[in-house]
Amino acid sequence: MKITFAEMRDSGVRGILVYCSDYRCSHSIALMAHHWPDDLRLSDIEPLFVCKACGKRRTDLRPNFNWNIHGPIGGMGYR
After folding, report:
1. Separation of alpha carbons 47 and 19, rounded Å
2. Percentage helix, strand, coil, to 5, in the chain?
């Protein structure tokens, strides 16, 4: 089970990285995480993402510790 958005924000992280779980695809995107509620876990929203490159729904979400360095990267969609 992954951390909640509140726990992530308390550690100073403001963004998430979404990776396509298909090793042949491996597309990713960096997103700001300000619009998700504090009590929600990162693992709760993983099934909501669909890779725009390969169309698979399997994703892996991680805190983006470099959120203020890199801008958003295209490749994933949110449903």
Report:
1. 12
2. 15, 30, 55
Which of 57 and 69 is assigned the larger pLDDT?
A: 57
Lookup: tokens for 74: 């295209």
Q: Model pTM? A: 0.76
CB half-sphere exposure, 39, CA atoms < 13 A: 0
- Measured over the CA atoms of residue 46, residue 37, residue 30 and residue 51, the dihedral's sign is positive
Both tokens assigned to 49: 């993402």
Where do runs of H (alpha helix) occur along the chain?
Answer: 5-10, 42-45
Are 44 and 4 in contact by the 8 Å Cβ rule? The answer is: no
pLDDT in tens, 20-64: 988 899 899 999 999 999 999 999 999 999 998 999 888 899 999
